[in-house]
Amino acid sequence: MASITFLPKMNTYISEWYDGQNFAHSQALFVSQYQQPGDDHRSLLQFDLSSIPKTSTIDKAELQLTLFRNEVTSEKICVSVHRLLNKWLNYTISWDTQPPFSPFWDGSMIIDQTTTPGLKTIDISDLVRGWHEGSIPNNGLLLAGGEDNNDLIGFRSTNYLYSNEWPKLSVKFVDGILEIKDQEKIMIPAFPDTPIIESRPVALGPRKKATFMILNTSDSPHIKVKVQLGCDNHPNSRFFDLGPWHCLEPKGYPGEAVALSSSDAAEYARVLFWGEGGETLTVYPRTKET
């Protein structure tokens, strides 16, 4: 797994009281109300993710902020992250010209009167995945919260002297495009049927790897599983064994689950199950294109 830490290409705050003023040269990013109603503050940031390969899958993304000022007077406030819906410019943005933003949160954290200065993180993995995949336009994000009371908080911006306290976006990703398939519930046939059954075949390709995460959800210690490969997914098609049987322990015991993978050349992969009959399992298939 690889990781990259990004600095924002733009970061500033806006003030409702100074609604036409730009604060791009400030060393701070303020959020919440300051001294009275009509004195709210919000902060905007944007990160350039173009250095992440398009064929990668985002595993986790965290917004890192350094809190230096905490004037929360309420019990607590929620600082929320919202995706911005239009473009903006760092040196012209003001309260009056702020772009619209989604009313739904893409991440949040709680700040109360006891929260100490220092590094704070917000998980925004789903938002960053959308930016990377192109399903969400990357217009940046807005920080808001606590606009009903005088609860001002301040984070460092990239204008601050010490770069170790600048806002950052830490992204962990894996090579290849990960596709999560629908999970499948399996019940091994009971007597008089033969206690063998197979999972749904998963389509492979020239650059795909398949992984089946298999969980024994029964009390039986007599379940065996193995991966098979085939040329097509017709019900009567022949599949070929890949490797030996793997035994599963009963539910709740170490060894109740196993992950089996294949990167061999074939059109389809599936799992074959063998037991005494009546056992239940859950299969979580994944494929990754490299």
Automatic annotation (TrEMBL):
<feature type="domain" description="Carbohydrate-binding module family 96">
    <location>
        <begin position="4"/>
        <end position="159"/>
    </location>
</feature>
<protein>
    <submittedName>
        <fullName>Flagellar hook-length control protein flik</fullName>
    </submittedName>
</protein>
<keyword id="KW-0282">Flagellum</keyword>
<dbReference type="InterPro" id="IPR055372">
    <property type="entry name" value="CBM96"/>
</dbReference>
<dbReference type="Pfam" id="PF24517">
    <property type="entry name" value="CBM96"/>
</dbReference>
<keyword id="KW-0732">Signal</keyword>
<keyword id="KW-0966">Cell projection</keyword>
<dbReference type="GO" id="GO:0005576">
    <property type="term" value="C:extracellular region"/>
</dbReference>
<keyword id="KW-0969">Cilium</keyword>
<keyword id="KW-0964">Secreted</keyword>
